[in-house]
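Q: Start with the shorter request: fold the first protein.
A: Done. Sequence, then structure:
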Amino acid sequence: MPEPSSSGQRHKYSPCDWHRSKSGGALAVNLLLPLQPASAHGREKWPGKQRSATTFPTASIFRHRYIKPMKSCLLTASSTLLVCASAAAQTDISSQLLTLSGPVQDGGVYDLAAQTWSQGLSSAAGASDVLYNNTCAAFGFLSLDSGEVVIDSGRLPSTTSPTNTFSQPGSADQYDLGLIELAYCTSEPSLDIRLNLFECYAPCSDASALVPDYSFDIQGAPGSLSGTPEAFSIRVDLGNLGSLPNILADSDGVYDGNTALDQFGWSFEITSTLSGGPSGPLVAGDPFGLLGGGGGMGCGWGAGTGIGTDDVLEIDTAGAMLGCNFFGGYFSGGEYASLYLKLAGADTAPPSTGTKFCFGNGLSTACPCGNNNDSSQAAGASGCANGSFHGGAELDVSGSASLVSDDATLNAAGLVPGQPGLFFQGNNAVNAGTGNSFGDGLRCAGGSVVRLGVRVANPAGEASTMGISLGATGQASAGDTRRYQLWYRDPNGSPCGNLFNLTNGLEVVWQP
């Protein structure tokens, strides 16, 4: 799998930003700590009008990583439309919906890594569980003009997703994607197709302003040899990639109960030249069995109609949004405005960003005055007991260790409320990682110390480095191992009378 790309088109604003800030504001408090200072450093058909394709990076697959400080999907007036919502803001494009004239044929399997076609799946893709299924009642296809991109939405449920008519809980909070199944109809002898995935996308929220999280180029998809439109379903096998694409459930791993915050988006674009005959993706979904004169399959959400998919489709061209569209309204007798897509994969646990070390639980270096923590905080994986918390203060990290993503955040808990502390970085793990006595705690990180920033603990005794770029401030490079710790004041009830203490240590190996 090619390395994640950061050289493609930059997003104009982040599609889904979030944070859970645990700290109060940053204050310029002089702790008088003897550390070394940091080094300086209405959509209409436009007959005959030529349109250029939307510009996206051209790698077969890439992962664009972005900072997620505050969760907020892009919203527009139409971004929360459901199947029962008003169609006032939508354009009826029923004239572009063409009926299938024959069965949907098996177009085979495309190995994305090898860029070859076959009938067999790799073991990684073949063993995948279905994550999203919108393949029910495919009666027609959306005919696209050259350069047009159509964008649909859906939802991958997290473990916090509710159980009701429209939803069900997921088995994990993020998934490795091993297989993509899509379908189309074309009069061309073959097609090149680009499929983009957006981890967070609100329906009709202008995907032209976003950079996709993953982009897949499918070359030489089968077509019609007679020039008469024929329909195909194809499977894109991701199992032979060096690592599988990873998607957060409900956009950020947590169900919010808001259509605009929980959905993912995907786009379908034909990148090969079209000769003028109709080509485009199959339309699918029939949650209440209203299609085919009431004789539709009635595939409920999660059983053939994709969870979270809405009765709207966005169409873009030339890097701009043309409009929000439907087929006259599902409850008014129109086709459901959603596209054929199946995603399969496997549950994944979040990758570890850092490793905690140097604990004040008495199992290695004892705390200075016998103030070992009582294991009530992080099961003892924390610092020495302080005047407010017998469990000591814990330091952990959220986000990733990627310097490109730049989203790693140090989080501390069990601090003395209202008191300042200094987050700092060191090159070394002191005393082989067990620490030395220092104040009321253990000094765990040392060597070429860099001050990262002062934070004041909130009333719950929490603080974080939110807003500080750890990699840039600490001048880290890919492959560097850095150790982190928080040094904080404890003026009231200091167990050893030294009036300050420290968290456990944390080690991070920085990645590109």
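Q: Next, the second protein, separately.
A: Sequence, then structure:
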Amino acid sequence: MSPAELQENDPMVGEFLSFLAQDIAKNPQHIQAIDSDLVYRAQSLIADIKFDINVPLSDEDE
């Protein structure tokens, strides 16, 4: 689903993205790179998870 479709289907997504864009514009000094240790930790947590992004979620997962 594209960002435009997400905004269309869930107005809260659009509101959040607008908020985020405004905050970034007002406070660019707060933008930080993600720490590489955090990236490695996240990757290790999901390394063995298999999924197909093209397969819809089941009712249980919604």
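Q: Describe the second briefly.
A: The chain has three helices and no strands. Residues 3-46 form one domain.
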